[in-house]
Amino acid sequence: MHDLAKEITLKYLGLSVVLVLLLAISLTLGAVDVSVWAALSDAWAGDVSASRSIVFDVRLPRALLAVIVGAGLGMSGAAMQGLLRNPLAEPGVLGVSAGAALGAVITLYFGFTAWGWLVLPAAAMVGSFVALFAIYALAGRSQSVLVLILAGVALNSLFGALVAVALNFADNMFALQEIIFWLMGSLANRSMDHVMIALPTCVLGMALIYSRHAYLDALTLGDDTANSLGFSAGRERAMLLAGIALAVGGGVAVAGSIGFVGLIVPHLLRPWAQHQPGKLLLLSALGGALLVLGADLLVRHLDVARELKLGVVTALLGAPFFIYLLITGKRRLI
Amino acid sequence: MTNTTPLSLHCEALHYRVGARALLKNVGFSAGAGQFIGLIGPNGAGKSTLLKTLAGLWAPSAGKVLLNQQSLPEWPPRARAKTLALLAQQEAPAWSLSVRALVALGRLPHTGSLAVALAREGNLIDLALTAADVAHLAERTVDTLSGGELRRVQCARLFATVADIWLADEPIAALDPLHQLHIMQLLKTKAETGLVIAALHDLTLAARFCDRILLMNDGELIADGTPTQVLTEDNLARVYRIRAQVQHSADGVSIVAQAPLTQSDLPTTTHAHNANLSGQ
Description:
Strand content of chain B: 25-35%
Protein name (chain B): Iron complex transport system ATP-binding protein
GO molecular function, one term (chain B): ATP binding
Oligomer: heterodimer
Shape of chain A: globular
Domain ABC transporter (chain B): 9-243
Function (chain B): Part of the ABC transporter complex HmuTUV involved in hemin import. Responsible for energy coupling to the transport system.
Pfam families (chain B): ABC_tran
CATH topology of chain A: ABC transporter involved in vitamin B12 uptake, BtuC
């Protein structure tokens, strides 16, 4: 038993060390060659300098956002898979990402973004909550996870169609570009303001999700057994969905929809968690942070002149990997 | 509340309807500590529905369930789970946990966390594993088990709850004869201090181990009494539509199904004895 605890601590420690290393790398590397130490000493001395500004106003918010958004997506993915008892589920399945994207697209299409920088992220969060409440109205009464999945599929198609309608009505090239920018996901040109939006929402969402880890473990044996073990399905599910909406909505608000993180990360880390859904949550948050930070590093250095969208890179990495998993995976319980 | 009131499970006038279909019709009985009750009846008789209603998972359309004289919906879920545990008919694990972790899930009402259960309640989990004769499988993952082995692991999960009342839905259906006897003996031992209600299809084992038999058909409680009172050739013919031979010997009752009956063979006039021994 003691070795097991040690082994698990090692896994968390290992992931955290790699994460800190990646953070340091993403602060150091960039289009301009600046010394992090010089920036630190400038900041310490209170001097305003180019290196300080590049490291702390450009690279740091971007790296922090990658960590926050990635952690939120990773943990939300693990929570969705546990909730739906399905390894192929991810935040997109319940329409939470689509709802957030619709919120963003609507503000872009009607030009509400001119009202202030807060409008867009707020609309994305409202969109994810609208998706959540719609799901709850459709499936909240039912104790069945199947109804929940079907409701998610229906809402996803609806929001997807509405996004397409909004895209169709976009009247200028600029609007279309902005829409593509948000739907593909990107961390370019983010500031500390964005960090201040994403940090509280994602952290609150993740805290809500993590507080339900025991229910996710109990759900391993199905709805009936989980209920018989003293969990009230309605309350547990409502808290999990609210947590997912917050974590995903906060992420989509500042980075657009970044796909595949919530799908791939829990899949890869499940053996590390001995396949226990509760234990998988924190590991997936760490793994999601790593994946998005790594993917963003790749985005920044593949082609500096014309940056690829982050969501494109995660899809390029994630989709072939996922297909590979589907082909080689022993179709056992996973 | 468990300390002051004696253990009891009581239901009256239970109805459960889904749409136009009535799955439970006017079911009522009382049970207390010291009983091992076999719940029998043909497929679709309402056994699982009754167990889920008694476990508080499904709210009855009409009627009420009292656990320790307190209405079931009034129980906080976690307190209820510590007193009353259910082994569902379908408990297919979604993830390939280790056997030990799956059994540890039974401790969730007490620990609130799987990690805490695994770290602190190893002895209790070991006891449950040994009781269900699956200790040697403890470190295997559940997806590598056979159907019968998995069922025994799920039984161990039920045992690990240490609840006063165990409701088990077909606990022994997939087991080999040795383990059928083994699990039935365990349930009987549990019933010396607690209450066990098990849905069963093996009538001979039900007759041999249970103190009391509830016979259900088409959502109704047809008979309630000792195995000898309930398991009559007449009852079996009407409810199960089989011609069965019921033999009483020193070893107990044995029931052999001999032939299916057609509609014309069925006894029509006599109605079942409702030997209600709930007040015993």
